[in-house]
Structures are given as structure tokens and as C-alpha cells.
Amino acid sequence: MYDSFRDQLRRFAKEKVAPYAAKVDEEERPPMEAYEASRALGLPGLPFAEEFGGQEGDVLSQIITVEELARACASSATTVSTCWIMMLVQRFGSDEQKRAIIPPVVRGEQRSAWGLTEPKGGSDLMGVVTSAKKTAGGWLLNGTKRFITNGGWADWYLIFARTEADKFGIFLVSKQDPGVSFGAPERKMGLRGSPTSDVILEDCLIPLDRVVGDPVRGGEYIRAGLLASRLKYAAHGLGIAQGALDEAVAYTKSREQFGRPVSDFQMVKGMVADMAMRVEAGRALLLHAATLVMNNDPGAKKYASMAKVMCTDAAMSVATDAVQLHGGYGYLKDYPVERMLRDAKVTQIWEGTNQIQRLMIAKDVYAG
Asked: What's the sign of the alpha-carbon dihedral 158, 160, 162, 168?
């Protein structure tokens, strides 16, 4: 089943995503061609329940989707999969929230975004200072969220805010709510087709029924959501690595030096072998972690962090080697590996830096 699904996604990415990858990067705009095509295939609704119009795709289906999209265009993979954060609403929200918000997201008519990182805190999620105060008229939110994927482009934002001294909640904020504004689009090294900006909340008053679940259990909800999303970001890195490997193999087979293909040279073969091993090792660990998550195994958290580190480190390493194997041409925007190298770097930074992931892994290892 998964093999045929992967084949379908690979054809889709090749035909509907890859042709626009360079253009959206160059123009620094959302990948609308790929996004609209993904709606026709039902990808924005992949993990959601059938009752909301979704396909009930499991974790393996989700990581396959992200990998195959990122293999062609990392920005498109990010844009499509960011819709899935509304699974937190499906899991922890009220029936009214689910019926009102999830179906338009599933259909791709409305877009969504996280609201986690802040100017003074990224990996220290529990250090957020954005506040949510309960008033007679609703929840009053104040704070700034930074580096928000789909910032200014999304319709709904899941805002993580402090409700008590050491308690947090998750709040549904609409782009149209009073008191919401957005910073200028960030000018990024890579992933330039994925909109990123600040989300600014200044006395943003939202209805009382816009809190997701219990307003003091947001930390618990976020940790549950991050476990699954960590696999998604690992798959994102894996897709970039595989795409860079594909390009390197194709180029070295076609490029000739000294009267024969570059792929005939021993040092080139050694580099390609190392690249392939990094990709396959990352994929094996990611699939293992996904299986543990699907089976609610207590070791899933550690392996999800391992997969995130290994796959995203592979993205950077393989993309760097792919540029090297292209020689001077790899430094030109005419070749996809230049874009892939720029896109790869952020995968080691977001969703908890790889340094933070290593500390979490070591903590679990020492705990036995």
C-alpha cells in the first residue's frame, strides 16, 4: 500500500511541483501552483478524519508525502504540511471548533500556522512571554511570535500563550481578529517560497470559546503535537537529501571529463556511496521512529529526535556534496542543488535545533 502511495506522490511531485520550484524560490512567493495542485489530490486534508472531509492518512503516509514533496521543492512541502497542525484541534478542540475550522482547512480554502517561537525564545518553548488573560469579553492576547511559517498568509494561527505563572494555553486566532498584525516578510537564505513573518498581538481580543481544550494544559498539547511534527521535519530533511542525491547522480553520469563520465572516477563513486548511505540510514531510522509513534511506544520520543537529527544532518551533508560534485555549475542558480543547499540549512535549526535534540537524546539514553 505504501509503495503505491509513494509512487503516486513521486509522480505528482515531478509533474506538478518540481516545474515551479526554481520560480517560487526566485520570486520569493508562496508556491501557489503546487498548493492548488495538492488541493486536487486532497493533501491538505491527508491526516484528518473522514467526517471532516479528510483521508485519515496515518503517520507513515504523512512522512512519505513530506519526503516526496521536499525531494522536488522544500518550500512546497512546508506549505502543504503546515496545514496539518490543525490536527491539534481535531485531537483536543471542542466539537464546535472542529466543525467550524477543520473542513475549510481540509479543502485547502483556508490555511493555518503555528504560533510558538518568540523573539527571545526558540528552543525554550516554556519561556514564552506572550500572555492570554481571561476577561469578561474574551481572551486578551499580547505578545509577538517570530519566524512564523505562513505568517501573514495563513487564515488561522494556533497561538501558544502563558495563562498562569507556569501554565499555558493554545488559542485559535484569526487573521481577521482585531489586534492582529504581521511583520514584513523575512528575507531568508533558503526556503524562500515559504512565507515567514512575525505575528504581532496587541490587545487582541478573541471569544472565550477560541481556547483549545483546557487553558492550562497547552504545554501538554504542544508536546503531543511536536512528537508527530518532529517526524514531519525529519522527512522534510530526508526529501532534500534524496533530491540532492538524485541530482548529483544524474549530473555525474552525464558530465564528461578526460573522455569519460565523471561517474567513472573512483573518488566520485566514493562520495556518492557515502551520500546514499546517509540517505538510507536516515530513512531507516525515520521509518522506525514513525512505527514507534503509531504504536504509542514509550521510546518514540527519543527515536523521533534521533530521526530529526540524522535526516536533517544528512540534508546538509548530502546537499553540500551534491554541489561539490557539480563543480562550478553547482554554484549557479541554474541547477537545483544550489537551492537545495540553501533550503537544507534551516532543517537543522527549526523544530528544536539539532544541538537541543542531541541533549534530549542523551538525557533519555542516560535514563536507561
From this structure: positive
Q: Would you list the domain boundaries of the chain?
A: 2-106, 112-216, 219-367
Please say whether the beta carbons of 52 and 45 come within 8 A.
yes
Residue type for position 176: Q
Q: Is 96 a catalytic residue?
A: no
* 113 contact partners, CB below 8 Å, separation of at least 6: 82, 85, 148, 149, 150, 151, 153, 154, 156, 157, 158, 199
pLDDT in tens, 247-298: 999 999 999 899 999 999 999 999 999 999 999 999 999 999 999 999 999 9
- pLDDT, tens digit (0-9, with 9 covering 90-100), for 235-249: 999 999 999 999 999
The count of residues in the chain is 368
pTM (global) more than 0.90: yes
Query: How many Å apart are CA 9 and CA 368, to the nearest integer?
Result: 39
- What stretches of the chain show up as alpha helix (H) in DSSP? 2-12, 18-27, 32-41, 59-72, 74-81, 87-92, 95-106, 218-254, 266-294, 300-325, 336-347, 354-366
pLDDT in tens, 164-211: 999 999 999 999 999 999 999 999 999 999 999 999 999 999 999 999
Closest by Cα among 195, 141, 205 to 170 = 141
CATH H superfamily, domain 112-216? Butyryl-CoA Dehydrogenase, subunit A, domain 2 (2.40.110.10)
Count of beta carbons in the 10 Å neighbourhood of residue 202: 12
CATH superfamily of 219-367: Butyryl-CoA Dehydrogenase, subunit A, domain 3 (1.20.140.10)
Rounded to an integer, what distance in angstroms lies between the CA atom of residue 76 and that of residue 73?
A: 5
Which of 216, 231, 107 has the alpha carbon at shortest distance from 164?
Answer: 216
Please tell me the distance from the alpha carbon of residue 25 to that of residue 194, in angstroms, as a whole number.
9
The residues, any chain, with a CB within 8 Å of residue 173's CB and separated by 6 or more, are: 115, 141, 156, 157, 158, 159, 180, 199, 201, 204, 206, 210
Which one of 67, 118, 247, 351 is the catalytic residue? 351
